[in-house]
C-alpha cells in the first residue's frame, strides 16, 4: 500500500523476497481475497544490502520511545482539531456554504485518516508477530487508509480551485450546493476506484512454522503493471494536485496584489489593505508549502524503492519509511489551522459557541441565535 508501512516486505530486481530471522527462505501460505490458498516459495536475492536480516527492525525498536509519542501527538491534534472544525461548520448556519462544505469534507477525511492510518501502522510496524488483526481487517484497513489519503488530496485541490474562482472571477456564478455534493461524491468514488488495483493485489500471508503474519501488496509476476500503477498514482495524487494548488493560489496572489480599492483612501486604510494582502499571501504560501512538504518525503521514498530498493540503506529502511509516513500524516494536523483557525470567521464562530455555552441563565434558544448572528 502506497502510504502504509510494510514492515516485512522487500522488493529487489522486480521480485518479492521473504526471509525469516535467520535469513533463510520461508514458504508462505497466501490467502487472497477470493479465499483461495496458494503455497508460494520465494527465493532470496543474495545482495550485499541483505547481509543483516531484519537489522532495520532492531533499529526501529530502538527509536520506539521517540516515534510512538510523535504519532500519538498527530492523532490527538488531528482528531481534536478536525472534530472542532466539523462541529463549528455544522453548528453555525452562517458557515453553511460551498467552501465550508469542502473544508468539512477535508476535516472528516483527515480525521478518518488519523484513526485508520496511525494506530494500525504503529501496531503493524512494532509488533514482532506482524499483522494480528485478522484477514477481514487486513483488506478493510488497506482499503480505507489510501481512500482517506486520496480524498484529502483531491479535496485540497477542490478548495484551491473554488477559492480561485471566488477571488479571480468574483462575478461568475458560484457552484450550487447540489453541484458541491456531486463533486464530493465524485471525489470519494474516484478515490475508491484508484485504490481498487492495490486492494485486489493485497494478501493476508501466514508464514508456516513462524509466528508471523503479514498483510501486504504482492504483484506476483506483474512488475510492469505495478510500476505503471505506482507512477500513475503519484501523478494523479501528488504532481497534478500540487500543480493545481500552486497555479490557483499564484493567480489569487497576483489578483490581490494588483487589486486597487476604488475611491480616495487614507494612509491608514491603504496600510490596512497592504497588511491584509500580506496576511493572505503568507497564508497562501503556507498552504502550498504544507501540501508539498508533508507529502514529498513519502513519494520520494516510494519512487526510490521502486527504482531500486538498494538505494535505501538496509539498516535504516524501516526507520526512514516510518518517518516519511509520520510526515505525511502530519498534514492532518496542519489542515485545520491553515483552512480554518487562521481565519477570523472560524475563530469568531468558535468563540461565540463556547462563550454561549458557558453563560449562566441564558436560554438554549437565545444561545442558538447568538451563534448565528455576526
TrEMBL record:
Bilayer topology term: Multi-pass membrane protein
Chain intervals with Basic and acidic residues compositional bias: 7-23
Cell location: Cell membrane
GO-annotated molecular function: neuropeptide binding; neuropeptide Y receptor activity
Residues covered by the G-protein coupled receptors family 1 profile domain: 81-339
Signal peptide (UniProt feature, chain positions): none
Alphabetical UniProt keywords: Cell membrane, Disulfide bond, G-protein coupled receptor, Glycoprotein, Membrane, Receptor, Transducer, Transmembrane, Transmembrane helix
Segments for region (Disordered): 1-27
Protein name, UniProt field: Prolactin-releasing peptide receptor
Amino acid at each position: 500500500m502506497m502510504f502504509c508501512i510494510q514492515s516485512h516486505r522487500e522488493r529487489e530486481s522486480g521480485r518479492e523476497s521473504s526471509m525469516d530471522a535467520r535469513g533463510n527462505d520461508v514458504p508462505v501460505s497466501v490467502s487472497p481475497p477470493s479465499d483461495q490458498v496458494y503455497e508460494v516459495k520465494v527465493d532470496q536475492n543474495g545482495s550485499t544490502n541483505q547481509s543483516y536480516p531484519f537489522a532495520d527492525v532492531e533499529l526501529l525498536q530502538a527509536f520506539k520511545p521517540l516515534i510512538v509519542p510523535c504519532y500519538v501527538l498527530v492523532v490527538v491534534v488531528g482528531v481534536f482539531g478536525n472534530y472542532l472544525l466539523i462541529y463549528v461548520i455544522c453548528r453555525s448556519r452562517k458557515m453553511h456554504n460551498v467552501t465550508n462544505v469542502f473544508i468539512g469534507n477535508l476535516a472528516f477525511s483527515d480525521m478518518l485518516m488519523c484513526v485508520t492510518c496511525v494506530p494500525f501502522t504503529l501496531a503493524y510496524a512494532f509488533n514482532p508477530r506482524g499483522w494480528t488483526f485478522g484477514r477481514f481487517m487486513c483488506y478493510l484497513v488497506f482499503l480505507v487508509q489510501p481512500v482517506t489519503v486520496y480524498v484529502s488530496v483531491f479535496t485540497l485541490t477542490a478548495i484551491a480551485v473554488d477559492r480561485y474562482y471566488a477571488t479571480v472571477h468574483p462575478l461568475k456564478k458560484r457552484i450550487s450546493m447540489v453541484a458541491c455534493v456531486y463533486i464530493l461524491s465524485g471525489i470519494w468514488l474516484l478515490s475508491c476506484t484508484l485504490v481498487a488495483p492495490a486492494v485486489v493485489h493485497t494478501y493476508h500471508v501466514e508464514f508456516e512454522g513462524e509466528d508471523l503474519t503479514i498483510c501486504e501488496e504482492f504483484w506476483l509476476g506483474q512488475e510492469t503493471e505495478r510500476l505503471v500503477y505506482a507512477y500513475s498514482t503519484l501523478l494523479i495524487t501528488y504532481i497534478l494536485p500540487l500543480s493545481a494548488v500552486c497555479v490557483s493560489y499564484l493567480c489569487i496572489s497576483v489578483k490581490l496584489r494588483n487589486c486597487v480599492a476604488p475611491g480616495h483612501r487614507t494612509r491608514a486604510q491603504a496600510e490596512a489593505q497592504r497588511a491584509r494582502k500580506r496576511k493572505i499571501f503568507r497564508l497562501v504560501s503556507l498552504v502550498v508549502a504544507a501540501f508539498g512538504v508533508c507529502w514529498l518525503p513519502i513519494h520520494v521514498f516510494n519512487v526510490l524503492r521502486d527504482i531500486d530498493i538498494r538505494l535505501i540503506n538496509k539498516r535504516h529502511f524501516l526507520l526512514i519509511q516510518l518517518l516519511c509516513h509520520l510526515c505525511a500524516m502530519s498534514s492532518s494536523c496542519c489542515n485545520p489551522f491553515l483552512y480554518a483557525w487562521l481565519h477570523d470567521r472560524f475563530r469568531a464562530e468558535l468563540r461565540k459557541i463556547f462563550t454561549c455555552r458557558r453563560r449562566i441563565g441564558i436560554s438554549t434558544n437565545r444561545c442558538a441565535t447568538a451563534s448565528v448572528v455576526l
